[in-house]
Amino acid sequence: MLEEILRYLSSPSNREKVLDLLGEHVVLAVVPLLLGLAVAVPLGWAAQRVRWLRAPVLGSASVLYTVPALALFVLMPSVLGTRILDGANVVVALALYTVALLVRPVVDALDAVPGHVVAAATAMGYRPARRFVAVELPMAVPVLAAGVRVASVSNISLVSVGAFIGLGGLGQLFTEGFQVRYLAPIVLGIVATLLLALVMDLLLVGLRWVSTPGLRAGAQA
Amino acid sequence: MQRLIEFRGVTKRFDDGTVAVAQLDLIAAPGQITVLVGPSGCGKTTSLRMVNRMVEPTSGTLLVGGQDVRSRPPAELRRGIGYVIQQAGLFPHRTVLDNVATVPLLTGATRRAARARASELLELVGLPSELARRYPGQLSGGQQQRVGVARALAADPPVLLMDEPFSAVDPVVREGLQDELLRLQGELGKTVLFVTHDIDEAIKLGDRVAVLRAGGVLAQFGPPQQLLAEPADEFVAGFVGRDRGYRSLSFVSTDGLAVHELATVRIGAPAAGPGWWLAVDGQRRPRGWLAPPHPGGGQAVRAGGSLHRLGGPMRTALDAALSSPSGLGVVVDDTGAVVGGVRAEEVLAAWRRHRGNDA
Amino acid sequence: MIVNEVLAWFGDPAHWRGPGGVPMRVAEHLYYTVVTVLVAVVIAVPLGLAVGHTGRGGVVLVGLTNAMRALPTLGLLTFLFLLLGSADVATVVALVVLAVPPVLAGSYAGVQSVQREIVDAARGMGMTSTQCLWQVELPAALPLLLGGLRSAVLQVVATTAVAAYLGLGGLGRLLLDGLRSLDYPQMVAAALLTAALAVLLDLLLAGMARLVVPTGVRLSAASAGGAGRPRGGGP
User: Which residues of C fall within a CB distance of 8 Å from A60?
Assistant: First the structure.
């Protein structure tokens, strides 16, 4: 198998194609992750602090998460007016999905911040917004990081599945290989996807490590 | 012989080299409460857990009822030993009743018999029968602990192991549970091995108390009076704490202590003369003191001090006298009715006589 | 307007009859889902319980679970098909690989979540290892275990659509056919049906969980601050 893959890669057009697909995959998976995080954090914060927001936000997130992502890809165009396979369409759909996935961990993470630490911070004179950024958020990072890691793997996987309706990314290696009955690109695609997921995961673990020096002793992967 | 726990040179060394228990020799006499007490890391919990093989000794022999604990499979051994832990460890998915019925069911009793027994026990530990159908998550900490004790007693084991069972509840509840245990022990007479870090609890509950030093070394083992009066070394003296002398009065009786007449008046009525008057209610229970009248008229009612029950130890008599606003300690009988008063000087005189009586 | 077109699609009786009709496709979809989940449960629940109960191999389990999660389903599907030649087997295996991680993680996390004092008390009372697992750890582990199950069902329903890629049935068939004939209303219909199926199954499982999880466990979880569906089931 290894020789097959190497033979496949020996062609420059193939190499270029794989790199393009990889790039496409990264963009399609990571941009929604960042967007989703950017929306989920304030949303989760609001849901955690405002009593009556909590249930509706968590509830809708839950329902949204239940809707298969593929279905979202198809349904988004009716809302956005784009075409299904448009990059923007995919990014928005996946971002929505990421928000749905991350809201709960954000709320859980903020819940897990010990009350006495928050109280001490308030007593020292921190106003809510500043306190959130300086005290609560850093302490919420470990739990949040776990959620983001799940979202990362999930997004990478979803982009790959999307290839069967024509989406870009590494999934195209699977469809191409299938069509010409050639195993090499398929195996290459699987390996590449695994590596991508691993690299993303390591990056996230590294980020978490860097951003929580004080909590390192107790935190676990 | 049947209900005895014996440690012979028992040692526990963990994999990382720490010695938790070092050559422990100890005998817990049948029908008594033996308390293991000491600072954190002194091996008291480890020692307890070796009795039912939750922890295996590295060397030495442990006998329960004359049998080496290693001679039977652990599960079988444990079904004959009651085990009560700090957080109760009740099964959340079973009702209180079914929790208590666990060991009888394990040993093969029918469900009906096990539940009947469980009901009896719930009553024995003072829990209302409505709680039987509830779940542990719905009970308070103190109630959960009682259920834990009931559960440990369900199979009527001769031996009871208790690992800091009352440490996780607040002081008022704790005192209630301690009194309950003493009452139960009076009725059942089990052999109890009790672990605590609280020396006051040890002194209150123990028939004999073993003080352990860090690293599992036995510093002293004897009745609580002895620990208070004759600590073996600096460590024990320090651990037992200040007020040793005062606390040792808990073990001196007040036989021969004279009790005076007390001037009493019904509450609400004015004093019928000079000096202090004790206000009592319809059942002659003390409700406060009427201070001597001010020059300008009017009388203040002062809250009374602690009460000394007739026949109680010298400590309560002295405390009653010292805490009373009038200097006269109030003595009551078992119903709480006033019997008379004692003065601090008299208590101390009785104490001197007691000291003189000792060889 | 697209809404009208979609409604028209649903209104057309031809779409409800025969081997290509909605009922048939939904049945096929359900078939793959149920078979997959059953196989995954048979594999993952005992494994997760065993590792959680003995406390050994946890690190390996977590690593394995995460690695499986990262495997691309479409890639596995095409790979297995080319290798084995059977569309059915390839589909079920690929979907089982997708379903195992949440169930495995849920079972493992469930057993691990049982408070240590409870297990200590159970062992101290004289329960054997097995008795403790069945009578104490498993009931207490149910919330997280069932949460993992729900998560798995969700992912499988969502991804079973790929079966169509190999020419099999299911709602993915409606989707692909619509794609190939540029019938957007059909694609929307397929998407809506898949979404509806997913939501329905999820509600069903939630209701089942309510029935199965012992009352006492639900109460103590509530007073401790709530377990729930683990997101992706990740430890």
Answer: none
Give A83's contacts (C-beta < 8 A, 6+ positions apart).
A77, A89
Look at the pTM and tell me if it is higher than 0.80: no
Sign of the C-alpha dihedral computed for residues B88, B89, B95 and B101 taken in this order: negative
Q: Which residues contact C34 (CB under 8 A, 6 or more apart)?
A: none
Compute the distance between CA of residue C198 and CA of residue C179 in angstroms, rounded to an integer.
21
Please give the distance of CA B240 from its chain centroid, rounded to a whole number.
16
Closest CA to A29 of A167, A175, A210, A205: A167
Other C-beta atoms closer than 10 Å to the C-beta of A30 total 19
Concatenated DSSP letters of B107-170:
TT--HHHHHHHHHHHHHHTT--GGGGGS-GGGS-HHHHHHHHHHHHHTT--SEEEEESTTTTS-
Interface check C125 vs B, CB under 8 A: yes
ipTM for the assembly: 0.81
Put simply, whether C212 touches B (Cβ < 8 Å) is no
Q: Which residue of C has its CA nearest to B153?
A: C125
Residue-wise pLDDT tens digits, B278-295: 888 888 888 888 887 766
C-chain residues near B80 (CB < 8 A): 126
**CA A139: distance to chain centroid?**
21
- Are B90 and C118 within 8 A, CB to CB? yes
CA distance B136 to chain C (A): 7
Q: Which of A69-78, B187-196, C19-28 has the lowest average pLDDT? A: A69-78
User: Starting at the edge strand that comes first in sequence, how are the strands of the sheet with B328-332 ordered?
Assistant: B307-309, B328-332, B338-343
Structure-block tokens of residue B2: 């049947």
Neighbours of B281 (CB within 10 A): 13
pLDDT tens, A65-105? 888 888 888 888 777 776 777 778 888 888 999 999 999 88
Name the β-bridge partners of B211: B37, B220
Cα distance between residue B349 and residue C11, in whole Å: 106
